[in-house]
Amino acid sequence: MKLNVILTSTRPGRNGKPVADWFVDYAKAHSAGFEVVFTDLAEVALPILDEPNHPRMKKYEHAHTKRWSAIVDDSDAFVFVLPEYNFTAPPAFVNAVDYLYSEWAYKPAGFVSYGGISGGLRSVQTAKTMLTTLSVMPIPQQVVIPMVFGHLADGSFTAEKPHEESAGQMIDELAKWAGALAPLRG
């Protein structure tokens, strides 16, 4: 099974890359049977939704959409590395989710959220609502990183024991859910 860790912030100077790098390394060491891959929405570079057909039809006209569709379709589970912008999920996340429809279905999702005092929790709540409409199963286990700035130095994120413990629990739960949902993805 393939676990896709998706960095959702595309903002220049973003703090998410060091957080995502830490989580990818942690997930590879604690794989729970997953092949761990990394996707950076800044590199995927999706423009504001520009497909003329509804995503449910899967009649994609643009190469960027076809590439994105293949990435999501090839994944069995997701971890979204998600900051909080104005009390909600970042626009790049919303746009990337909106591009597709059936590729998301019957796959579990976890979150590594970061930010100020709330640690991105409000962002996760809005993301969960959006994902469930596409038959994604957001699991309750997640990694929350409040005051992320205190964990960043020289382009690296330094995790503490609670981050690692919650990451391990989340990965284990994602493996259970991905296995359980596999027949539905058929």
Would you mind describing this structure in some detail?
This protein has 186 residues and is of the alpha/beta class. The chain has a single domain (2-185), classed as Rossmann fold (3-Layer(aba) Sandwich), CATH 3.40.50. It has 6 helices and 8 strands, in the order E-H-E-H-H-E-H-E-H-E-E-E-E-H. The strands form 2 sheets. Strands 1, 2, 3, 4, 5 and 6 form a 6-stranded parallel sheet that branches. Strand 1 (2-7), helix 1 (16-29) and strand 2 (35-40) form a beta-alpha-beta unit. The two termini are 13 Å apart.
- Classify the beta-strand content into a percent band: 15-25%
Proper CATH architecture: 3-Layer(aba) Sandwich
Q: Could you give the count of β-strands? A: 8
How would you sum up the major sheet? Answer: 6 strands, parallel
Question: Helices and strands in order, then pairings?
Answer:
Elements: E1 2-7, H1 16-29, E2 35-40, H2 41-44, H3 63-73, E3 77-83, H4 91-98, E4 108-114, H5 121-132, E5 137-138, E6 143-145, E7 152-153, E8 156-157, H6 161-185
Parallel strand pairs: 1-2, 1-3, 3-4, 4-5, 4-6
Antiparallel strand pairs: 7-8
Task: Describe what is shown at a glance.
This protein is α/β, with parallel strands linked by helices. The protein is built from 6 helices and 8 strands; from the N terminus they run βαβααβαβαββββα.
